[in-house]
């Protein structure tokens, strides 16, 4: 190691090293497995990317609730490396329904951990004031963020919802007795106007206040220490300043993400350069802040483009040395003939998806070993 004799240079060196660790994982009491996952995701993002699929184990194209099945596994022989679940069933339902949902998700999460995979959690949070939906409906929805923040009329009810989430986080113990780590991604696509927490219905100050309270209450009051917290707007940004407009501060975010369907072929529109530009912003910010980064949602509904996986998605992901831990495509509906985002046997993009799967850059569940320990390696 080089010896630094100049005091000024030595101080700068110390500050540089301190800065490298300053904005690492926000929960200093995170479980050993959660800390290991965080570090291993950072390592993976240097040279690879994990493939994820929403609701992959719960149902797929033409089926539901079948043990150890996913459409991705039916095509490749491996489950996705990242499995998406949702906490939408944890509020706005009866106690019995919530308990049933929790039991199903608990098995999903623990089974994924046992196999060596990773769980990410979105939250289509039913409006806690007006009820009915997580979407904004002009005739019935209420701008609820100002009401659930600290001091708001529905703050206590919001704390009850968070208690349900915390109870679930404390329940997901695997056979080895360890709590399963999860990537928790609340209030996604907040820069849009389709959810009740969207920018049109929520002030910047209220959004940040609710985010900060949510994270602090879960980890500091309710003792949840197996979450990695992800922040993911949609694509309505063109600069770092735009992206950070509602950023709740480095002490409240572990992962920087982005949901992007519009640049990847939706309605026939492809903007590869635009997707790369925005992912470059996310990746660079994450490197600068020593955070994780991911393409937290994307996909092309019905996948009519036979070479979409390699000629669109992979081409973007492998560009400009982006450092992204994972990419997740949306769900395959069990009954709709057209609402699917991952291939299934016989779907026209299967040959190209096999190429995507076989590319050394992409990692699926079968590629991972010991991702929750410091002995992690790629098989």
From TrEMBL:
<dbReference type="GO" id="GO:0016787">
    <property type="term" value="F:hydrolase activity"/>
</dbReference>
<dbReference type="InterPro" id="IPR016714">
    <property type="entry name" value="MANB/E"/>
</dbReference>
<feature type="active site" description="Nucleophile">
    <location>
        <position position="297"/>
    </location>
</feature>
<dbReference type="InterPro" id="IPR017853">
    <property type="entry name" value="GH"/>
</dbReference>
<keyword id="KW-0119">Carbohydrate metabolism</keyword>
<keyword id="KW-0732">Signal</keyword>
<keyword id="KW-0964">Secreted</keyword>
<feature type="active site" description="Proton donor">
    <location>
        <position position="189"/>
    </location>
</feature>
<protein>
    <recommendedName>
        <fullName>Mannan endo-1,4-beta-mannosidase</fullName>
        <ecNumber>3.2.1.78</ecNumber>
    </recommendedName>
</protein>
<feature type="domain" description="GH26">
    <location>
        <begin position="32"/>
        <end position="366"/>
    </location>
</feature>
<dbReference type="Pfam" id="PF02156">
    <property type="entry name" value="Glyco_hydro_26"/>
</dbReference>
<dbReference type="InterPro" id="IPR022790">
    <property type="entry name" value="GH26_dom"/>
</dbReference>
<comment type="similarity">
    <text>Belongs to the glycosyl hydrolase 26 family.</text>
</comment>
<dbReference type="InterPro" id="IPR000805">
    <property type="entry name" value="Glyco_hydro_26"/>
</dbReference>
<keyword id="KW-0378">Hydrolase</keyword>
<keyword id="KW-0326">Glycosidase</keyword>
<feature type="signal peptide">
    <location>
        <begin position="1"/>
        <end position="24"/>
    </location>
</feature>
């Amino acid at each position: 190691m080089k010896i630094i004799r100049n005091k000024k240079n030595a101080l700068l060196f110390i500050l540089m090293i301190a800065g490298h660790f300053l904005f690492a994982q926000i929960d200093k009491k995170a479980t050993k497995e959660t800390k290991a996952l965080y570090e291993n995701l950072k390592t993976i993002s240097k040279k690879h990317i994990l493939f994820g699929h929403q609701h992959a184990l719960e149902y797929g194209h033409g089926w539901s609730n079948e043990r150890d099945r996913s459409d991705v596994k039916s095509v490749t022989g491996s489950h996705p490396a990242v499995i998406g679940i949702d906490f939408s069933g944890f509020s706005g339902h009866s106690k019995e329904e919530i308990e049933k949902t929790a039991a199903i998700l608990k098995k999903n999460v623990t089974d994924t951990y046992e196999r060596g995979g990773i769980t990410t959690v979105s939250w289509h949070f039913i409006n806690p004031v007006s009820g009915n939906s997580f979407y904004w409906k002009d005739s019935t929805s209420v701008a609820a963020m100002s009401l659930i923040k600290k001091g708001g009329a529905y703050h206590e009810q919001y704390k009850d919802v968070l208690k349900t989430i915390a109870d679930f986080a404390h329940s997901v113990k695997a056979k080895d007795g360890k709590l399963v780590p999860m990537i928790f991604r609340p209030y996604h696509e907040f820069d849009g106007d389709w959810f009740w927490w969207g920018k049109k219905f929520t002030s910047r100050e209220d959004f940040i206040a609710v985010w900060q309270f949510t994270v602090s209450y879960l980890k500091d009051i309710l003792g949840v220490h197996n979450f990695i917290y992800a922040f993911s707007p949609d694509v309505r940004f063109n600069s770092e300043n735009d992206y950070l407009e509602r950023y709740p501060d480095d002490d409240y975010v572990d992962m920087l993400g982005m949901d992007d369907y519009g640049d990847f072929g939706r309605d026939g529109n492809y903007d590869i350069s635009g997707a790369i530009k925005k992912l470059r912003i996310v990746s660079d910010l994450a490197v600068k802040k020593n955070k994780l980064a991911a393409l937290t949602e994307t996909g092309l509904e019905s996948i009519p483009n036979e070479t979409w996986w390699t000629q669109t998605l992979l081409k973007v992901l492998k560009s400009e040395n982006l450092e992204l831990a994972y990419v997740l495509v949306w769900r395959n509906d069990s009954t709709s003939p057209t609402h699917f985002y991952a291939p299934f046997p016989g779907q026209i993009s299967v040959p190209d998806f096999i190429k995507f799967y076989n590319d050394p850059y992409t990692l699926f569940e079968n590629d991972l070993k010991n991702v929750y320990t410091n002995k992690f390696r790629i098989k």
